[in-house]
Amino acid sequence: MLITVDPASPQPLADQVAASVRAALASGTAAPGDRLPSARNVAATLGINLHTVLRGYQQLRDEGLVELRRGRTAVITDAADQFRLRLAAAAEEFARAALHAGASEEEALAAVREALLAMRG
């Protein structure tokens, strides 16, 4: 799994690490039982502090998406499937609301992009 961060982003690096894993879960490129790269490896590859990566992994643990195994690694839990289902349900609900409002596909996607940009700061 490829974990990426953007040092120029105002979003904290630990949040970006967690978001990168969530994106892999949402896209299906990561699944329950998969191991995340070691925090040490991610830190070295991205040139960021080990504790920053660990904070990102801890966020995922707190959300129930990964299980941290001391001295070994982080493993994606079965809750990741529920994450994908919740994301799909939220997308379906938004699509239904956009259609009801008469928005075109382009307008709906633009609204999502605008909301995401606003949330990221």
What does this structure look like?
This protein is mainly alpha-helical. The protein has 2 domains: 13-81, Arc Repressor Mutant, subunit A; 84-120, no CATH class. The chain is built from 5 helices and 2 strands. The chain has a two-stranded antiparallel sheet. The longest helix is centred in the last third of the chain and has 22 residues, at 79-100. The protein starts with 12 loop residues before the first helix and ends with a helix. The model has no long low-confidence stretch (mean pLDDT 92).
The overall pLDDT, averaged over residues, is 92
**How would a crystallographer describe the biggest sheet?**
2 strands, antiparallel
Number of helices: 5
Ranges where pLDDT stays below 50 over 5 or more residues in a row are: none
CATH fold-level label of the largest domain: Arc Repressor Mutant, subunit A
**For this structure, what is the CATH class of the largest domain?**
Mainly Alpha
Helix content: 55-70%
Task: Summarize the helices and strands and which ones pair or pack.
Elements: H1 13-27, H2 39-46, H3 50-62, E1 66-68, E2 74-76, H4 79-100, H5 105-120
Helix pairs in contact: 1-3, 2-3
Kindly list the characteristics that best describe this protein:
121 residues, mainly alpha, Arc Repressor Mutant, subunit A, 2 domains, two-stranded antiparallel ribbon, 5 helices, 2 strands
Task: Provide a quick synopsis of the model.
With 121 residues, the protein is mainly alpha-helical. The chain contains five helices and two strands. A hairpin with a 5-residue loop joins strand 1 and strand 2.
